[in-house]
Fold this sequence. Notes:
Layout: E1 2-5, H1 16-23, H2 27-39, H3 44-55, H4 60-69, H5 76-85, E2 89-97, H6 98-101, E3 111-115, H7 131-145, E4 152-156, H8 162-167, E5 171-174, H9 178-183, E6 186-188, H10 193-205
Parallel strand pairs: 1-2, 1-4, 2-3, 4-5, 5-6
Helix pairs in contact: 1-2, 1-4, 2-3
Amino acid sequence: MLHVFDMDGTLLTGAATVELARHFDKLAMGEDVETRFLAGTVTDTEFWQTLLDICGEATEADLDAAFHGARWMEGVAAVFADIRARGETAIVISQSPTFFVDRLRAWGAHETYGSAVEIGVPVLDDATLSAEMKVTITEEALSRLGLAPEECVAYGDSGSDIGLFRWLPHTVAVNAAPAIRALAAAHYSGSDLREAYALGRELATA
């Protein structure tokens, strides 16, 4: 079984950009650019450059502190541990920067994917991990593992997850926007990922 998780709004209660801005005492700046990004009034490059400005010359220790201090759903590491104990696979696919998403491997995620943004490196025009890439990455993971789409559960909350939710039969909307709720096989509202994961397990074994 493959479990595919979005991060912002699904594993995190909010967005990585806002959490990083909170840690670096630039919360208003982070909230503003996140709002404009969601509204489509800022380009991807402008968004990422603002994030890099927020992070400044952050060290790995700084980023670790921001990661651990972020507002995560309860039970994230426990869910990954249970998936591993069953011999299954957990991957996280997010539009947030890889330097933040990759830290979930220490909590038990097998694979992590994010936008190609690095501190101290110029932003590339194609840095953003697209919604279409979420489907492609999942297709490749299923093929590599020898699994069918019916052996996959996706957990998500927003527009970047629509492609996955239209394709896969087993989907859990986590504190989700209406468009995702309308496509999902199950819905969860709350603060404990273990409860959303339980719904996913029910779908996969029904």
